[in-house]
């Protein structure tokens, strides 16, 4: 397959002013008639007219009304055209019903639906399918279905047809069409300047009761974007559609967002607090794209972080504002470390702005999204809040209606602040997670912190240069008071010292407060302050981080030295658990132990070969020890976390349930599951039912609960996804592959549905000890299924290949087994471009 390079970018030869599309819907033979107004691009460097097109049956084509014989070469169409404005018309036939890749126009349980990002529009009709070609779309849909939707405003409709017009020029990846037997739950929103917007959430009949939260989250997002970014909505309608078959979470098509049902539908009985929180964040994310992505889009796909990093940052800000900022930040960092640090440490490491790709779908990664968001956060920390919002104002004014680059983005900050961001830009081009080592000195009342930064080599990038690191630091005195409030130190050199004068005693530093930069901080050079900071730090992130460091150390000592769980750690944890002045959600986070994957990476970084079974055993032992050590305190806290009244997903109630369920999981380790059974039987919401179900599965693969849960929920696909997933997540290492295999034979295992596939095979790859069991059964089963899924849905297959990205961490036996599984996938004839690229990079 061909590699595409950022350095090869050239502007489009022709621009598009207007697009008219007519869809005659038919499951196996949809006709798409296009009329596209082209004109030469004055900035073009070539005059070659080229249209993308994949899996299209061309019926006819005309240029300025004259039939043309086209030159079809692979996935594109080339033609000699006048060097003047002209009209292209064509009719193509496509087959939505057989489109299982879920890209382009496809069908999901009788409903027509599109997914065009990144390069799906070319599966709908011939078009310059690149984001720097922005055009005004008018769409007519003909089909015998009650609901016919496209982007923009509704222009006209009749029996079996509808017309839509989107006045905002947009790239083809933001095109959308939905048609089906759907029901709308509706609301309205009045923008700050008085525009009345109709809000509709379209769902299948039967899902109407799962819409209220999504609509409420949408309205809150609309207000928030007006308040913080002066960003107002710009159409008369904002439609959201829930679809069951979808490769990712959601898609920000202009005026017609399409959501994976799992990312929008919610009811107390069927959705957990975590589901509600995720739905709120995704609704906000997609809505915020209206400005950061749609009004201002990307020049090319290498600039993906321009819209995704910024929009993730904005949705993180929203969550922090709507819920607890401290808890939100801890959750963001856990996700970053769990997915992005893992990626940055392995064969798939790539810069936030990659410089080449084979299949762009493989670059919708944690690095582009989550690390991309961290770069925006650092910029904001460096320039300060006021200049950040000034720069954003300028960005919106200067670039509205344009397709931009990271250079445009940084220039806005340079022009606003007068700063030179040349060095900061390295964050966009250098892959890998910087290691930041710190040491200290105290003399004559002056306290000096010395930092050394180093970024390890990553594929294709051996040598790294120093990056700009904003290090937020506060100093505490030995009795726990704060002597120096948070200051941001701006590190630019490979090694750099910062001094604080006039101190009466040697302080205890709290470094990288709020996780001010996406680096790995190594504090061996400043002594052991973790227990002190867990007790005294005023920065909630570092307070949590200190607890995490203590837990990690205890576990590493148990694994590498056969040590017993550290009593001091257990006492410190118990003190936090009992401290009613602390937010329950925060306490629940402190009680959470590091993941198996995090421990494996830590051990690997320390020069050990991680043994997944030893890691699993250490975590089991520590949990059991915690349950005994805290036994007396647990019933009171469990009772105190009881939330009365009807269910509400708000942060306070959810925090109480989170801590209550954490405590329940410990209680169930000493009471044989009696309390969990009680909670399971009396739960009136999914958060409590599922947590109790998990406890019961953890004690033994409780058949009774498994059966009763299934029979209660068998009609609800989203709950049955949880049912598949939980049984596998809680499976003992030796049984995980077998249980997964057994579940893949269940009549409800609809493997072509990405949610079901992920909740089953994805749960196995997430059960680290099960996936890495020495038998190799986990590797084999996952490889078998990836081989089977690839011809059906390459995008979802390729994403799941990341389960193998850590293969080089492990012992030779596991490495050989994983490599064999990978090789088996790589050797499959006719492997998709997506998976071919993933295999090449992972095996490299
Ligand atoms: N911009 C979207 C990214 C995306 C996507 C979404 C659904 C299915 C396939 C997709 N390919 C790329 C989602 C977002 O970041 O908001
Ligand atoms: Zn996005």
UniProtKB/TrEMBL annotation:
**UniProt KW Hydrolase keyword:** yes
Tell me which residues make up the Aminopeptidase N-like N-terminal domain.
90-174
One Pfam match? Peptidase_M1
Note the CDD domains from the entry.
Answer: M1_APN
Q: Which cofactor does it need?
A: Zn(2+)
All copies of the Peptidase M1 alanyl aminopeptidase Ig-like fold domain together span 432-524
Record SUPFAM superfamilies: Leukotriene A4 hydrolase N-terminal domain (SSF63737), Metalloproteases ('zincins'), catalytic domain (SSF55486)
Q: Does the keyword Transferase apply?
A: no
Peptidase M1 membrane alanine aminopeptidase domain span: 213-427
Would you say which domain of life the source belongs to?
A: Bacteria
Q: What is its EC number?
A: 3.4.11.2
**Which UniProt keywords are present, listed alphabetically?**
Aminopeptidase, Hydrolase, Metal-binding, Metalloprotease, Protease, Zinc
Quickly give the catalysed reaction. Release of an N-terminal amino acid, Xaa-|-Yaa- from a peptide, amide or arylamide. Xaa is preferably Ala, but may be most amino acids including Pro (slow action). When a terminal hydrophobic residue is followed by a prolyl residue, the two may be released as an intact Xaa-Pro dipeptide
Q: Which GO terms describe its molecular function?
A: aminopeptidase activity
The Peptidase M1 alanyl aminopeptidase C-terminal domain extends over 529-843
Family (UniProt): Belongs to the peptidase M1 family.
Q: Write down what this protein is called.
A: Aminopeptidase N
Q: Which organism is it from?
A: Parasulfitobacter algicola
- Gene from which this protein is expressed: pepN
